[in-house]
Structures are given as structure tokens and as C-alpha cells.
Amino acid sequence: MARGFSKIGATLALSVMLCAAGDTPDYAAAARALDALVEQGYAYPEKLPGGVLPRSAKLDAERAAVHDSRSLLHYAEDRITSLADHHAITGSSFKDSWAVIPTYADVWVVARDGRFVIDAVREGSPAAQAGIRAGDVLAAVDGIETGAAVASFWDALGLAVTPHRADYAARVLAAGRRDRERRLTITSAGGASRTLTLPSLYTFQSDRPPLSVEHAGKQTVIRFNNSLGDDGTIAAFDAAMAQVPAGDRLVLDLRDTPSGGNTTIARAVMGWFVSKPHSYQMHNRPVEQRETGIARQWIEQVLPRNGKFRKRLPAVWVGRWTGSMGEGLAIGFAAMGAPVRGTPMAGLNGSVEDLEIEGTGLSIKLPTERLSTITGVPREDFVPQPLH
After folding, report:
1. CA dist 312 to 211, 247, 266, 309, Å?
2. For 84-130, what is each residue's pLDDT tens digit?
3. 33 is in which domain, residue-wise?
4. Within a domain: residue 100?
5. What is the pLDDT of residues 305-332, one digit of tens each?
6. What is the pTM of this model?
7. Based on the domain organization, do 272 and 332 belong to the same domain?
8. Looking at the structure, do residues 168 and 259 belong to the same domain, yes or no?
9. How many other CB atoms are there within 10 angstroms of residue 68's CB atom?
């Protein structure tokens, strides 16, 4: 949902143009402008240590050394990584860049009592096929003990390890580099240890229809196959809904929607279940308050769809690979009174905006809006009901 900053975009473009020599961008100026863009636009500074953009001698030296498009992208990746926010990424990447989480992750790792515990495994993934289970421990990555690998990950940026950074880095390390296999040492709950070589999920993607529909007894399950950004999902959902028996219990399975999507598709789905306008999520745009001193907040609504209505609300299933717009659907259905069940979701921060550093070919995807339930609970903190 890119709208673009009115003032931020103009300020950034001007800083780069003023420092440019002829038609060649001043990449050093662009690197400095990147920091300013993140500082001004990022919607969650209170989640950063000290509430400020992370700084270190290593990051400062890397920024000062930026001189071309390649070094600018390297710095941009490190600067975005410093936020430890899975919803903030660069618009371009290198072949060996770290995998994007949660889209290209198949284990969800959390630090608990000095261990790095796998609390969820993606269904049908290489990790699941290799027998990794929730409750196992990620003991090492590429032969390096996980705690040491996490410390090294952050030391490369000159930053200290915090609990939040430990979780973030462990998940990134487990997903690995885009262009190579991963070697993960897993310790089971019973203490047995084994080292597995798993492919990158960048080589593991398969073509699937937008939806899968299953009928069992008096229940129909519509599963979204990571398709909330696919415009064809609307027609596919409408067709699936037309075939749901009136007496069936309906389940919408959002447990494989890690890449998010857009609010048009989400509202098309929710629009089947409202007969009048219904609020589903709250937006807050901190950048406007920083620019003007005046806060901006609004509630987004779902509207009925002509000729498409089901009175009985669905049950909604969610999990760690329910991300971004999938999480938006979850809180939207919860606002309607539908049961939302499963494990904690991906917990991705806010709404992402595409921001371009003009003249450099570089863009970043940054959470610039906070999203919450209509009662004010941050979307990333929403807790579903247990599945069983």
C-alpha cells in the first residue's frame, strides 16, 4: 500500500540531487539520506534500544565508505537489519543476501533460557520433511553454536545482542542465505542431536492455486496458499464461497500467508460476511505527527459486497506463517466476532511503504504506519484463541 511521503520523499530526493555530480548519483549522500529516511519514517522507534536508530563505529565506517550502487545496497541491507524488524527489507538484494522472514523460513526460532527453541515448523517444508518438530532446539548453524552465531551476526554490525535481536538473528540464520543450502544441527526434546543439510526455500517454491478447498462432513476449509497479494484470489474465493453448503461450518485457513498481501483482497474476503459497514483495523501514521505536530489516526472499514453475503461467520485459523495482511484479516474477523484460533502469528509490524532513494535505483520497504485492532491492541500483539 504505497502512498509515498509528501515531505520525506521530497526532502530525500532534494538531498541526493543537490549532492550529485552531473548524472552520477552521489552515493555517499544517498547513504546519509537513507539514515534520515529511516529515522523520520519508521513507525516503531520505541522498539529500538534507547528509542533511536542503532549506531555503531562499524555502521558509521560502512556508511562513510559508500561510493557506488553496490556499496550503497550493502549498507542499506545492514542499516535495515539494524532495526531487527522482519517487516523492513530492501527493495533489491544480492544473490547471497539473507532470506526474507517469514516468507522464506521454515522454522520459527525463539530464545528461551539460553537455548534457541523451535516453536513452529512450516507444514510441507524441507524442515518438516526432515523431521524437525516444535520443541526441538537449534543447537548450531553451519557448525557454529547458535548463541555464538547470533553474537557474530550482530558483531558484524558493531551492535550488542539483546533478547529481541537474538530472536531475530536466530530466525535469519536458520533460514540462511538465498543462494545456498543450510546446515542446521538440531537437538530433539529427548536429547538426540543430528545435523541436517536443507535447501534454501528460494529453490523450494512450487506453483499452487490461490486457494485449496476441502470438504469433510459438515465442514468446509478454504486454505489460502500465500495468495493475499494475488488479484486472482478474489475470483477464486468468490467461486469457492458459492460452493459452500449453507449448513456447513466454514473455516478460513490463513496459516500459509507469510508474504502478506493487500487490503483490497482482504476486504473482498471479509465483505462476504457483513451486511453493513464494519470497522476492522485502526491505522496510525507517526510521520505526520513528526512533520506537523498533529497526530493522525483512522479506522478502516469493510463494506458489503453486492450479491455476496454469508450470515454465519467463519472460524479463522492462524499461525507463525500468518503474516502482515493475513494478520490484518485475523484482527478484522475478530472484530466481527469470528473465532480466531491457532498459535501466535508472525507479529509483523504495521503497514509497509515502498520508499525510493531517487536517482539511485534503491528502494526500501519500511513499516511507516502502526496497525491495531479497533480496540487499540497493536496488531503484532494480538493473541488468538487455542486451536483445540
Report:
1. 21, 9, 18, 9
2. 999 999 999 999 999 999 999 999 999 998 899 999 999 999 999 99
3. 7-41+45-84
4. no
5. 999 999 999 999 999 999 999 999 999 9
6. 0.92
7. yes
8. no
9. 12
